[in-house]
Specification:
InterPro entries: Aminoglycoside_PTrfase, Kinase-like_dom_sf. This protein has eight helices and eleven strands. With about 210 residues, it is of the alpha+beta class. The N and C termini lie far apart (about 40 Å).
């Protein structure tokens, strides 16, 4: 992790667009060259963020996912900022739209195709021991070739073996938090999701239900 001075931070963000912010300030910048700078704030004094900053987790998790042949953003650098007191990751985004946007724009056949790919991706993650708490259709990118990639995975956990059935069920509950996503994935196209997941997983006995 490299240090970034307040002067360097001001210089790189001077003409950047703020894409996301909260009450503590900007969280994601779109830089002039089209790349992104994502900032992470330490939320508590005694936190795992002090030992393993979220920016570093983001970069390390990108390496894990890339090793599984899952498209992810290209990491350009990981930084510790002096002012504002943040850690940051600089990356090049994936081309395409979020799966949520693609589902809104697709026809019936296109939606079924996307859900089938999502079921296969979910099985691949679970079988590889990946527990992605923030998994929802806004964090899945549909590339121009309709392959699915992932973004915003700083809180991902990696286990040495495939996820247990209880962890798989818990992960599915996270996916269902968004009403629009739940309507498509777990209601309208549930049978497509179940079929594609069972065909791709090494744990076919897992029953994917609401």
């Amino acid at each position: 992790m490299h240090s970034m001075t307040s002067e360097a931070f001001q210089r790189i963000t001077m003409h950047a667009a703020v894409l996301e912010e909260d009450g503590f300030g900007p969280k994601v910048y779109l830089l002039e060259d089209g790349s992104f700078l994502k900032l992470f704030r330490r939320k508590r004094f005694f936190s795992s963020e002090a030992l393993r900053p979220y920016a570093r987790r983001f970069a390390e998790n990108a390496t894990v996912l890339r090793g599984l042949l899952i498209p992810v953003p290209e990491i350009k650098g990981v930084y510790r900022l002096a002012d504002p007191p943040r850690t940051a990751v600089h990356y090049v985004g994936l081309p395409g739209n979020t799966m949520r946007t693609s589902m809104r724009e697709a026809d019936e056949a296109g939606r079924e195709r996307l859900v089938r790919r999502f079921g296969q991706l979910l099985a691949h993650l679970h079988d590889a021991g990946i527990y992605f708490r923030s998994l929802h259709l806004g964090n899945v990118i549909v590339l121009p070739n309709e392959e699915l990639g992932l973004i915003d995975f700083a809180d991902m956990q990696t286990y040495r073996k495939s996820l247990s059935i209880s962890k798989r069920k818990r992960n599915l509950r996270h996916v269902q938090r968004y009403e629009e996503d739940r309507g498509w994935i777990f209601e309208t196209y549930l049978s497509t999701l179940q079929e594609s997941y069972r065909g791709a997983t090494n744990t076919p006995e897992f029953q994917m239900t609401l």
